[in-house]
Write a structure and sequence with these properties.
Blueprint (H helix, E strand, L loop, with lengths): L2 H7 L2 E4 L12 H5 L4 E4 L14 H13 L3 E6 L15 H21 L3 E4 L11 H22 L2 E5 L7 H11 L4 E6 H7 L2 H8 L3 E5 L20 H10 L6 E3 L10 H24 L1
Parallel strand pairs: 1-2, 1-8, 2-3, 3-4, 4-5, 5-6, 6-7
Helix pairs in contact: 4-5, 8-9, 9-10
Length: about 290
């Protein structure tokens, strides 16, 4: 296998949060730097660049993607607690509203050709919740999502968030529900803060259907471009191949160095992707 074959099997993706929120005017920079897959993260339901479920908005968004050689690969759920998007909020009315917001994204994902939706089953304020409550609320949200997933064929990729919602808890939830449309989106930055990236990735096994690749210094969730922090990417790649993953290498990097232009930043994302695929080729040939 040569490097081009590796990159065919592991294409590069970048999340839309790498651009200014609600403004895709710099999407041509994706094209310039050969970034051809995008995870769409509509932070608010009425995002002007793409409103899920609105046919005119969807047509305009797909035309913009086509012009810039972009394929929407996945959709990220709404997750901002400050806007009432926490599907595990203590207030039942907030939970219900957040779940309804996210259910709309399944049809939206199907309309733009995305294969899965990344699901946050928790906000960041989890103090005072027992493990049983954590699991119960997460399960309630998934059971609400599954009819839409079944209707549209869009998979649900549950994201690891923190120590009390790690890959172990996600596997427990999937074991309990046992549904073919459920899988895992593995976030390297989150795992690096709350635990060990390699052991967490290994726990994903064949359930891994999506990645959020970004780097940090093991203290906070910095969302740096890979190789700008302390994650051992060689070990990560070795484990990724060990568990048999093939699919997009989706970067969820969006924090730039102070004063770094977007053009340079996207170029650095592309360089990081090239390094990752070179590690894949080296591992395959070793």
């Amino acid at each position: 296998m040569d490097i081009e074959q590796v990159r065919d099997s592991y294409p590069m993706g970048l999340t839309s949060v790498a651009m200014p929120h609600d403004d895709f005017s710099i999407l041509p920079l994706f094209n310039k730097h050969h970034i051809n897959l995008m995870e769409v993260t509509p932070l608010v339901p009425d995002n002007k660049e793409w409103t899920a479920g609105d046919s005119d908005s969807t047509k305009q968004f797909l035309a913009l993607c086509s012009t810039n050689n972009i394929t929407p690969a996945s959709v990220h759920c709404f997750f901002l607690e400050s806007l009432g998007h926490d599907v595990a909020a203590k207030d039942p009315s907030v939970r219900k509203s957040a779940i309804e917001f996210n259910k709309v994204l399944f049809q939206g994902a199907k309309d733009i050709g995305a294969k899965y939706m990344v699901a946050h089953l928790y906000g960041w304020n989890v103090e005072g919740r027992s493990a049983d409550e954590t699991m119960s609320l997460a399960k309630d949200a998934i059971m609400e999502y599954l009819p839409e997933a079944e209707r549209t064929g869009v998979k649900i990729a549950i994201e690891n968030l923190f120590g009390s919602w790690s890959v172990k808890q996600i596997n427990q939830l999937i074991d309990e529900i046992d549904h073919p449309l459920l899988g895992i989106c593995f976030d390297t930055g989150h795992a690096a803060v709350y635990g060990d990236v390699i052991s967490e990735l290994r726990l994903c096994g064949s359930r891994l259907i999506g990645l959020h690749l970004h780097d940090n210094h093991f203290i906070k969730d910095e969302h740096f471009v890979p190789f700008r922090g302390k994650i051992n990417w060689k070990a990560f790649i070795s484990t990724l191949l060990e568990i048999g993953y093939k699919g997009p290498l989706m970067l969820e990097s969006y924090v730039r160095y102070e004063g770094e232009p977007f053009d340079d930043f996207f170029g650095e994302c592309q360089k990081a992707y090239q390094k990752l695929t070179e590690l894949i080729l080296d591992e395959m040939n070793s």
